[in-house]
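Figure 6 in text form: structure in, sequence out.
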């Protein structure tokens, strides 16, 4: 998913309880601890890789997380939500449909976030999953069907939200099927990180976004 010569390093953020507004609102508190660990290897950029965890408190919350990370790690930072917004703008998306694994209350926050930024959300549909591990167990086939079911003819793209969903292998087939761009959380996050560090090499099978640096 990255060009030759680019290395990717991870650490975990502690997450306890069901996936809901309350628990997601606490997740950013773990960002500074995780950023300090990653800072030891002097990365060029750090990403807070949770979509819902960076939109759950509304517009501007993702920027607050970025500021915290940049302060403790002394490097560039982004969040998945920030990356998705930049990806939508790069592809000139105005109207979108959103597929998620979330429960209704999280979908409400998701829809509100994007609408307040000026996007028209034509439809949003979630799998209603409260368990984070269960989200990760969803098959690409399940996600593919969900994305197709939420698509609208007038939508400029379909956005599949959540970094815990296995979406990479379905991006290209979905774009062929729907005849429009597909943006996913992990795809957008990696695109944004590469862009921030000046790597603009197009990659195959990752959709229209990776041809749009």
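Output sequence:
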């Amino acid at each position: 998913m990255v060009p030759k010569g680019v290395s990717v390093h991870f650490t975990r953020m502690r997450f306890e309880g069901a996936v809901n507004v309350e628990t997601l609102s606490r997740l950013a508190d773990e960002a500074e601890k995780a950023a300090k660990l990653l800072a030891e290897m002097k990365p060029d950029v750090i990403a807070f890789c949770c979509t819902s965890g960076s939109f759950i408190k509304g517009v501007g919350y993702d920027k607050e997380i970025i500021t915290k990370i940049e302060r403790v790690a002394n490097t560039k930072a982004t969040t998945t939500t920030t990356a998705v917004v930049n990806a939508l703008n790069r592809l000139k998306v105005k109207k979108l449909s959103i597929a998620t694994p979330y429960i209704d209350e999280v979908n409400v926050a998701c829809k509100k976030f994007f609408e307040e930024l000026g996007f028209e959300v034509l439809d949003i549909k979630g799998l209603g999953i409260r368990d984070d591990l269960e989200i990760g167990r969803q098959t690409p086939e399940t996600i593919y069907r969900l994305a197709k079911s939420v698509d609208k003819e007038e939508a400029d793209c379909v956005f599949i939200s959540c970094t815990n969903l296995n979406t990479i292998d379905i991006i290209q087939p979905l774009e062929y099927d729907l005849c429009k761009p597909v943006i996913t959380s992990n795809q957008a996050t990696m695109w944004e990180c590469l862009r921030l560090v000046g790597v603009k090499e197009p990659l195959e099978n990752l959709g229209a976004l990776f041809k749009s640096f």
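Caption detail: The longest helix spans residues 61-73.
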